[in-house]
Design goal:
Elements lengths: L1 H16 L1 H21 L7 E7 L4 H12 L3 E5 L8 H5 L5 E5 L3 H6 L7 E4 L4 H29 L22 H32 L1 H7 L4 H31 L7 H23 L5 H18 L12 H7 L3 H15 L7 H26 L1
Parallel strand pairs: 1-2, 1-3
Antiparallel strand pairs: 3-4
Amino acid sequence: MRKTWSIAKKELKQIGRDPLSLLTLLGFPAFMLVLYGFALNFDVRHVTLAVQDRDKSAASRDLVAAFVNSSYFDIVATPAPGEDVEALTRRCVARAALVIPEGFGARLAGGKSASAQMLLDGADSLTATTVLGYANAIVAETNARILGRVLRRAGRRLESAVTFEPRVFYNPELRSAQFLVPGLIGMIMMITAVLSTALSVVRERERGTMEQVRMAPIRPFQLILGKTVPYLVISLFATIFILAAARVLFGVVIRGPLLDLFLATLLYLAGSLGLGLVFSTLVATQALAFQVSLLASLLPSMLLSGFVFQIRIMPVWLQAITYLVPTRYYLVILRGIILKGAGLGPYWPEMGCLALFAVVMIGLASWRMARQGA
């Protein structure tokens, strides 16, 4: 233990002599959180809408008002009858266009059904699907209101066969930031941890100091542990920093036990730091270590962890690969603790996978270090 602590103190002194590296370890995660946190947003609000009202009746104005008052649509153009409405979507002036034909109000007044046309820019299929859902809901509400007026004039009441009261748990406002920010934290900490240890060992090898360390009477596991502990402590401080930034900037509140969050983060960071040490035993230069570490940590954490894309909609063979990505398990725990206020009770399988990942990575790094020193 004394030898491990000596290696850790040496590593801390090296970090202290390089303020830029320390600033990178602490500031880079917060910078990425701000950058990605504001850039990634799946909320669909203020959809640009063009309205071509060919009827100019009270009924057509009511329909347009329903779209505007929903707060989902903003009218940006009102082309006159005969103008090319589709050209507005081609020029990206409007993402949707509402066309109300002549006789719309007269048909409704006569108790007949009337039709209106909605044109959508489907280049972004996810946004178009959401906008179409908004439009269907608005039209359905307008239909119910019109039908209610007609029935009241006839002396009848409109009684719904089915009524429901929706209640959204954990994220009542359905803000995408509440879902994305915890995922960002997991991705950022993986990248930072892997890069820090990978570059640290390779830097020593380039300077020739690694050979001096190997000559000391210390085992490879003690060397690996001594190099991991300082970066683990710094990464934990960085985690606290970005959690505070997430609270201030995006309103993400930790609802679950802090101790459970600490334990899950500790295992996750230990495995990530071990992965960086494994990469450091495979490459010889800092440039190559940076490239390999960045690709191996960024792409799986972003694409295969459930951070952005749902795992259940991926092909079966790709879903099988996601079981090898530790960020997948950490995000389940992180979102459960932060958003749902849960403890570790429901997530022991994920904790077991993180523990296995940490043991395997640190063990593999020790084995590789022992082989290189033999």
